[in-house]
User: Fold these one by one.
Assistant:
Number 1:
Amino acid sequence: MSKTRRIETTVELVRILVAIGIAYGIALVTLFAISDDPVYVIRQFVLGPFSSVRRVGSIINLAIPFTFTGLCFCFVYAVNKFNLSGEGIFMFSGCIVSLTAISLGGAGLPTPVMLLILLAVGAIVGFLVSLIPAWLDVKFKANIVVVSLMLNSILAFLSIWVLKYFMRDPSIGSLGSYMIPESAKLPMIFGKFRVQSGFFVALIAVAFVGVLFYKTIFGYKMRVVGSNPNFAKASGINMNGTIILAQLVGGIFAGMGGTCEILGNYDRYKWVVSTQHGFDGLMVAVLARKNPILVPVAAILLAYIRIGADVVNSKGDIPIEFITVIQGIVILLVAAEEFMGRYKKKLIYKAAQKDMKMDREREAKVILAENAAEAGKESVE
């Protein structure tokens, strides 16, 4: 990693933590002002998520889908094409993966093979669905935000239709699918924490996307297209191809997120309303400043806030909607370009000055060595 990239990554991480700190400060003051028992509520809000092994495991489990959808939106954010279909992809991929798992349940496939097939199905669903708004945007100049939002509604109702007419279990009182086969479930790990093993899939995805973003030609093209379209055109980069491919790859990760969520945390498919994890991923990508390496950090922080809100809602007198205010403050601070922007520029400038000084010193040493060599040669002659 270059020195400039290292500085940018470090400052962005500090920006996230400072934004969270400011939002928490406002939250604590507000809780103290409006709650009948502010000390208890504040303690539950801050420490409640760590008060039991189960809650710590819940934070990690909640961060897993946030990580997948956050990676999805890092791609669309990178090329400045806000394809918001990640929300619908997450729900629809869970539906199709559940249908596939139930259909293959009697095939006797070993668990590793079954899981690989289902992850591939989820990825394919994400790929194909994200192609729709991406293609309409390039081909017909359709507003990609409007198209993807409408597509989310279509996918939500399509998922319910598939559930009702292709895999509904009539033996239960609520609307739900037949049981997902045991061979298709992601096992729990870390003992009493009961974290679904999609955790490892998410870590592999983060590492893969980090390499893709910063170590490959496609990652470079994608970042150039998003940050400087005119330069990208002048450089001969295929703009439309790069933009479409970025959205397709992002859709793959949203589809894998829906797959891991349904196979890791549910016995049957019962999603009849949107999970909102897609839009949570957009929030994570904004917090991470489209840097995939920071996505897990942002996902854990958001999950921690959500679990804290649940604890306060169940044990205090504060409505869970209060957390929306906290999230809004965090996003406003992190999205503000100049929030700690001067500090980052100052660090980069100092690093550049230091490098220039070192280069001049090296050049001076080389010149002195050459002069000494020349003088020695003349004295010998």
Number 2:
Amino acid sequence: MASENRKLEGKIAIVTGASSGIGRAIAVALCQAGAKVALAARRMERLEEINREITDQEGICICVKTDVTKREDVKELVKHTESVFGPIDILVNNAGVMYYTLMKNLHEDEWERQIDLNCKGLTNCIGGVLDGMLKRGSGHIVNMSSDAGRKGFPGLAVYSGTKFYVEGLSQALRQEVCGSGIRVTCIQPGDVKTELISHSTDKEAQEKYDGSSSCKILEPTDIANAVLYAVTQPEYVGVNEILVEPREAPA
């Protein structure tokens, strides 16, 4: 792929939630920087579209149908990626979901979906790569958090809770692996122009608290650039967190 600076040449990466939005942008950016990327998501047809786009630009990637909430799927994702490309250098835990809900409206299925995907899915993926990274003494785990992982937002109570989980796990893991050669980064986006916002069914919550139409919000490539910055720093540099907000919504 055309790129003046292929800082990730020879690196192997997994990107979850790669079928659209932020995940798609991250996968493209990593391939442009020279990495070989495993695209992981449930929607195989979407992954194949992105695969064609990347390979048309001479990038290298594979598609692996994966439900990150299923531990066996994640183990197979890692195994397959390593059999095709080699040991995993970078894991981008991007798969996630967000629903605006008022707690009083009891959208319990949506609460559970957020907990399963944002917490359990992320944990499964860390479990899939951590042992190998520790044995090799190198690796970078990038967890997609949120500005809602820094403070609770009304209308996003459960979502904020899941992202507080991401932050807490990441902080503790970072301390545990200190000295092992592994880095842990949290990316904390504000509102981003993706299909995520359209998933909410609690219209009362969305009308009351969704401010994404009040200013120009972020593009998926803005978040991909943040990930790329973190994973291309010298080995001795740890970028613990990157908060990226729309300029007019500093939160």
Number 3:
Amino acid sequence: MTTGLPSQNEVIELLDGEFARAGYEIEDVLIDARRRPPRIAIIADGDKPLDLDTITSLSQTASRLLDGVQSIRGQYVLEVSSPGVERPLTSEKHFRRARGRKVQVALTDGSQLLGRVGETQDGTVMLVVRDDRGRDWTVRDVPLNEIAKAVVQVEFSPPTQRELELATSGAGTEAGT
């Protein structure tokens, strides 16, 4: 039985070039043929934020291209979105894109860090964390291979100016972990 919907790979092949030209990559495609109408969800991410205007533009492009495929029959709901905060940060590009965001990090040695993502390069992320006395901010270099899990945290208040400066300037690093 055919659903009249494209496969995940077909969607990626069809849309990848257009999304890349706009500065985004397709992280995932979810197709749910059980829903009525069926749903095609495209998760995109890039080095610049995915704002509403960009989502609208990418949605229009995706809709136009998908509607042009003869094998797709019937109605479907198309959604284009960013990965959201629940997605774990698992690669250097995820950390690079999360610069300035607060993250909860579990290290491979079992310890935990709560910090703000700074510069990421050469397999290391700089995290802005509280110093040992908890009075000031410091930057700690953490090798990505020592991170077991990292998840962006939802924030309800803005960061301090000092914390944000350290996360965005790339200065003031502390050696080691």
Number 4:
Amino acid sequence: MAVSVRCFCVVAAFLAIIGIASFNPADGAGECPKSTPDAEAMKLIPCASAAQDPNAAVPASCCAQVKQLGQNPKCLCAVMLSNTAKSSGVKPEVALTIPKRCNFADRPVGYKCGAYTLP
């Protein structure tokens, strides 16, 4: 487990460097207006195991980041389906259950996210 988290962190850091290097701050009209979905995905490192295993506990630090991103459902969706998330082994169908697993009353229930719907 520790090895997979360490590997995820190395891959995520590498992808973040690439994402930051290619980030164009003048282009702020995407799903995540102040950043890119790949860059925002880096904030969800505490969610790594919870996004791969539906039975894993969701850490409070993960819930806090998801709550912040969840204020913009388009951005949260883009982050969950981002290249960074995919390359780190995130399972979208599991990752999209995190707001429910964090017991957010104001989560975007029924929001269509790619081929998935937020429960």
